[in-house]
């Protein structure tokens, strides 16, 4: 490893762990909060068009989330590989991981264009018979899938920059994309400043313009300065072992992020049997919960390069300290989220112009689901830890328990006995069981070497 590049990253091995984690995580927490704010503002604007429009966007969420899931999953694999190789002093492998990561992302862009064309309408038709809702959902989804290259490539560059500790740059550029979205939303949805009123379609167009803008800004920033890894054509060589390493973390991470889409799709089927209002409640909840889990994810993103670098450098004590501080910070965030959901659920749902039926159902749902926020801290941090260590299998097990193996069967069973309330109860039950297993996995992995306790 050359001296210039080495000096750019040695701070991950030498700075005090807590201050390092804070410096790496706070920019990501702020950017995640801004992104969460955008998601909520987007829904607030769409809700002005009526409950049907809000339901249409909620139905599109699983496919939209699939884009982000695959992009972030592969990005996490890239981050893990780059961080470990930089920690071990292997510059060539780090550069090759970054280059191959971009190449794999371009391949995924093509796949999503095909998915947008052929999958959108058949998939959305499974969840509604209302032609107006289906039409709006299709219009929204065609755009966000077929023009998803901005999102995919933006996230790939984001993860590469995070791998070398450039958190402030990723914060600034993510905020830039979100601000562009927020500015364009009312203009394109309601037809301001001489633009035609495009409704739900306008929301989709604003989203992809913001994503493409952020991607182009990453290109400009990367070209203007040399960083600790280099994306070069000479590094674009088929490397089966390195690709497998990226996907061994990336595929489980993508599946973990896709699980909410599967969960929402199944729960939408259960909830639709009661009322379309509950489908809208679930859609609004998933917008709201990002406001809690995105800052926690910011901590995880700050942890990953620190853990990966120090794992590669053999600094196990620093790895344990990073996990311990990450867990404490995440628990604090979840505690705040729980208090807000318990004591201010009506005020939160009123932001969405909720009619009395939607407001009543939303308050009940939020107060029950939030009981799993605090305990989920163990599962969230454990997943991020295993990803950073290159062990995607364990993180996948935890996420499967949180959002599939326990929650879905419980939703079916409890809804039979308790109605729609049973669906909400399944959320905290799944989080509790998953956190117990996460604790056990971390205690037993490599004989407890990385257990924070």
Span between termini = 34 Å
Q: What amount of the residues lies in strands?
A: under 5%
Helix content: over 70%
**Main sheet record:** none
Number of helices: 19
Which runs of at least 5 residues are low in confidence (pLDDT < 50)?
1-7
Q: What is the average per-residue confidence, as pLDDT, rounded to a whole number? A: 85
The value of Rg in angstroms is 21 Å
Give the overall shape, derived from the CA principal axes: globular
Structure classification: mainly alpha
Number of strands: 0
Give an overview of the whole structure.
The protein is an all-alpha fold. It contains 19 helices and no strands. Helix 12 (276-312) packs parallel to helix 15. The protein is globular. The two termini are 34 Å apart. 54% of the residues are buried. The model is unreliable at 1-7 (pLDDT under 50).
């Amino acid at each position: 490893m050359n001296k210039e590049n080495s000096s750019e990253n040695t701070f991950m091995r030498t700075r005090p762990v807590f201050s390092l984690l804070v410096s790496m995580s706070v920019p990501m927490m702020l950017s995640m909060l801004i992104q969460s704010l955008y998601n909520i503002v987007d829904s607030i604007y769409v809700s002005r068009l009526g409950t049907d429009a809000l339901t249409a966007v909620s139905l599109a969420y699983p496919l939209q989330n699939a884009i982000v899931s695959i992009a972030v999953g592969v990005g996490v694999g890239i981050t893990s590989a780059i961080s470990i190789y930089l920690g071990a002093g292997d510059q060539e492998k780090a550069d090759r991981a970054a280059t191959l990561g971009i190449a794999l992302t371009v391949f995924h862009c093509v796949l999503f264009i095909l998915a947008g064309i052929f999958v959108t309408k058949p998939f959305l038709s499974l969840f509604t018979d209302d032609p107006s809702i289906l039409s709006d959902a299709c219009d929204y989804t065609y755009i966000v899938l077929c023009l998803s290259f901005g999102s995919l490539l933006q996230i790939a560059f984001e993860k590469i920059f995070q791998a070398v500790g450039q958190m402030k740059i990723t914060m600034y550029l993510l905020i830039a994309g979100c601000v562009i979205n927020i500015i364009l939303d009312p203009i394109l949805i309601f037809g301001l400043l001489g633009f035609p009123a495009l409704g739900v379609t306008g929301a989709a167009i604003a989203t992809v313009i913001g994503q493409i803008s952020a991607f182009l800004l990453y290109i400009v920033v990367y070209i203007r300065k040399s960083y600790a890894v280099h994306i070069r054509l000479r590094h674009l060589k088929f490397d089966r072992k390195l690709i497998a390493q990226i996907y061994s973390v990336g595929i489980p991470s993508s599946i973990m992020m896709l699980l909410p889409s599967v969960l929402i799709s199944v729960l939408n089927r259960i909830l639709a049997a009661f009322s379309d209002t509950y489908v809208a409640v679930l859609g609004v909840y998933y917008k709201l919960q990002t406001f809690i889990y995105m800052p926690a994810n910011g901590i995880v993103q700050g942890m990953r390069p620190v853990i990966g670098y120090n794992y590669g450098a053999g600094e196990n004590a620093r790895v344990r300290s990073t996990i311990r501080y990450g867990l404490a910070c995440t628990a604090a965030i979840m505690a705040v989220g729980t208090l807000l959901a318990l004591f201010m659920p009506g005020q939160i749902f009123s932001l969405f112009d909720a009619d009395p039926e939607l407001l009543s159902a939303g308050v009940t749902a939020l107060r029950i689901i939030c009981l799993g926020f605090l305990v989920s801290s163990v599962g969230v941090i454990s997943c991020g830890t295993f990803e950073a260590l290159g062990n995607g299998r364990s993180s996948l097990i935890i996420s499967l328990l949180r959002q599939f193996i326990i929650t879905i069967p419980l939703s079916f069973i409890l809804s039979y006995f308790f109605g729609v309330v049973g669906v909400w109860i399944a959320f905290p039950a799944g989080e509790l069981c998953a956190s117990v297993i996460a604790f056990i996995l971390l205690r037993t992995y490599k004989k407890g070497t990385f257990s924070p306790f």
